[in-house]
Automatic annotation (TrEMBL):
The keyword Cytoplasm applies. One of its GO terms (molecular function) is sn-glycerol 3-phosphatase activity. It is found in: Cell membrane; Cytoplasm, Cytosol. This is Phosphoglycolate phosphatase. The keyword Membrane applies. It comes from Otus sunia (Oriental scops-owl). Pfam families: Hydrolase_like. Its main location: membrane.
Amino acid sequence: MFDCVVSEFGIDPARTIMVGDRLDTDILMGNTCGLTTLLTLTGVTTLDEVKGHQESDCPARQSLVPDFYVDSIADLLPALGD
């Protein structure tokens, strides 16, 4: 799916961030597509769940670890004002 978006709109994956609230969909897709990933903790995912995946030796679980996380997408608003 992301390959279609890249070809249609000329998206540069190196300049794209996947923002989502689920590890098994949003973050997995972002990591699989080589995107920077940002998890918002406003969905079903907890920080303890992320830490469990991060500490695992299992590659499948490691693919669910985001690059960054925020409690809420609203936490990004101050940075957008700059």
